[in-house]
Amino acid sequence: MQSQKITINDKCLNFNPGQTILEVAEENNIWIPTLCYLKGATPTGSCRICVVEVEGRRTLSPACSTPAEPDMVIHTESPKVVASRRDILELLLASGNHNCPLGSGREKDWKAAQNDDSTELCPACGDCRLQDLAVYYQVTGEKYVRSKEPEPHPPMETVNPFIVRDFSRCILCGRCVQACNEVQVNRAISFGYRGTESKIVAGIDVPLRDSDCVFCGECVQACPVGALVEKNARYQWRPWETEVIRTTCPYCGVGCQLNLHVKDRRILKVTGVEDGAPNKGRLCVKGRFGFDFIYSEDRLKTPLIKENGGYREASWLEALELVADRFKEIIDRGGPDAIAGVSCARSINEDSYQMQKLFRSVFKTNNIDHCART
Ligand code: FES
């Protein structure tokens, strides 16, 4: 495919036919803000925050959904563009409950607000794209506020174990709908109602737990504001308090890449690594929410030996010797095929490999399987 040329902010750049202005800009490290754009999904061009000025065009064009064309001359931060973005941000901030600190020292504002019982700051403060953009473009959110009384919004939904839906903080960008329908293809949520009544609905506007939602949490990861938040992590952390540690999901053999958000040596939430293979940011319910077993009081930490109808704690040495002795006894009595092994799906591949080697080469039986086959 022959590349063609466009100019963005006085830089002459190559692009391939079919690329959008946003894609060309990102490829060349030119920042254009986005809100509704979700990588990998069809661009909807609905929020208009990514507008850019294309010389010769009367109106501003959304970079996320406008194809790059040969010889285009584009400005991403012209006065007209900045004025438009500031207006959009003012409108978004005026249309919901966005009581986030908008000063440049959000950490300080957040600490001050923590000591002020009269304010319940947004749980996404510090992890919100709308707030970041409002700070960047120095928008106060006061330009279009009509009254000091908050607008009525549907009540918050907290009746499932994983996700809190706060409709008052939703900016209707539609990223959650795309994450559910296009990325995970669960088709559990969509836009519902019209005009000022518009909201994101599950099924026929039922709570998530009564819908087709499988709680993969992809919508939470896609939400750029505080409308969808992990229930257990809500108000438990701010980004500057956590360390992000990349690891591999322990559940099945796919090897999805996770980011653990850790505060005081405790995992508070898990997100998918956006550009990491094989999952490219996507996770299932277990990978995203199934980590609380780590801190369970019931978790076994020492081997238990069954005796007289009960269990007693034992050392690893004692337990392993007992298992080895029992294997020997059974094989002596019934031959190698009298035993079988089932390897654990949470083990790493190398451990499963060693287990089948132990059964086939040492015990001389092919009775070996893996519980993920269920
Ligand atoms: Fe392009 Fe919303 S990000 S229109």
Verbal overview:
The protein is of the alpha+beta class and 374 residues long. It has four domains: 4-77, Ubiquitin-like (UB roll), CATH 3.10.20; 105-145 and 155-237, Alpha-Beta Plaits (2-Layer Sandwich); 242-299, Single Sheet (N-terminal domain of TfIIb), CATH 2.20.25; 304-373, no CATH class. Helix content is 25%, strand content 18%. The chain contains nine helices and 16 strands. It has helices at 21-27, 79-94, 106-114, 129-136, 175-183, 218-222, 285-289, 316-334, 349-362, and strands at residues 4-8, 11-15, 51-54, 61-62, 73-75, 163-165, 189-192, 199-202, 228-230, 243-248, 257-263, 266-272, 304-307, 310-313, 341-343, 368-370. The strands form six sheets. It has a five-stranded mixed beta sheet with strand order 2-1-5-3-4, sandwiched between helices. Strands 10-11-12 form a three-stranded antiparallel beta sheet.
* Helical content band: 10-25%
Q: What is the ordering of alpha helices and beta strands? A: EEHEEEHHHEHEEHEEEEHEEHEHE
* Low-pLDDT residue intervals, each spanning 5 or more residues: none
| Hetero groups | FE2/S2 (inorganic) cluster
Key words describing this protein structure:
single chain, 374 residues, alpha+beta, Ubiquitin-like (UB roll), Alpha-Beta Plaits, N-terminal domain of TfIIb, 4 domains, 5-stranded mixed sheet, 9 helices, binds FE2/S2 (inorganic) cluster
